[in-house]
């Protein structure tokens, strides 16, 4: 489907920049790996863009570059040659490109140190950066109910966000509206509830599309820890034991019970 050099580059990007997702992709069926490596490499490159410079204008330009690339795909223009963009253009249609463009735009929050305005803006950020990605990935791979995917993606995105909180705080960012244990526990509970809702509706996600959701293999462990020990969100969640966690991933991949 893709140039081998592009696929290898995407896989290397994910392996270096997002080891947990790399393991999830390697556990997925072979036919799903190419799609997931490309989409997760795209996500990683976009997520990194605001952080490689301390100059907001340059960060804005880097994100705009990705918006322009997605517009080329959406409007069927000549697509720029790039190790991620080129294979991405063969995967997605104009609707998916529009969703990914919203993902890129949501990452503008990362450029500045402004807090989220309210809970709605925070949830929209998680939905756009996590939900849009997994809706596109599951859609490319096979049939899936978008709301089920978004519920799962919210839980996974929240889990990832909790893991990033200590670093964001050290950089004087405002990753959460309320840092109290009560608020953090309530947020973790919301994530666990949406994860349970998604898992209770597995039948609405095809087995092919479910490969995209293996990336949430550690989600329940992190959210459960945050629920029982919310203060660790601020200092750093310890996460599940690696051996147990990897075993869980293999079981999920073998059974399709993400």
Largest sheet: none
| Domain module count | 2
What is the name of the CATH architecture of the largest domain? Orthogonal Bundle
| Alpha carbon gap, first and last residue | 26 Å
Q: What is the percent of helical residues?
A: over 70%
How many strand segments? 0
H/I helix tally = 13
Gyration radius (Cα, Å) is 18 Å
- Percent strand equals under 5%
The low-confidence runs, each spanning 5 or more residues with pLDDT under 50, are none
CATH fold group of the largest domain: Farnesyl Diphosphate Synthase
Structural class: mainly alpha
| Overall average pLDDT | 97
Fill in the keyword field for this structure.
258 residues, 13 helices, mainly alpha, Farnesyl Diphosphate Synthase, 0% strand
Protein described:
This protein is mostly helical and 258 residues long. The protein folds into 2 domains: 1-112, no CATH class; 118-258, Farnesyl Diphosphate Synthase. 70% of the residues lie in helices and 0% in strands. It has 13 helices and no strands. It has helices at 4-17, 19-27, 30-48, 56-74, 85-91, 94-106, 119-141, 146-170, 181-200, 207-210, 219-228, 232-235, 242-255. Helix 3 (30-48) runs antiparallel to helix 7 (119-141) and helix 9 (181-200) packs antiparallel against helix 11 (219-228). The longest helix is centred in the middle third of the chain and has 25 residues, at 146-170. The two termini are 26 Å apart. The model has no long low-confidence stretch (mean pLDDT 97).
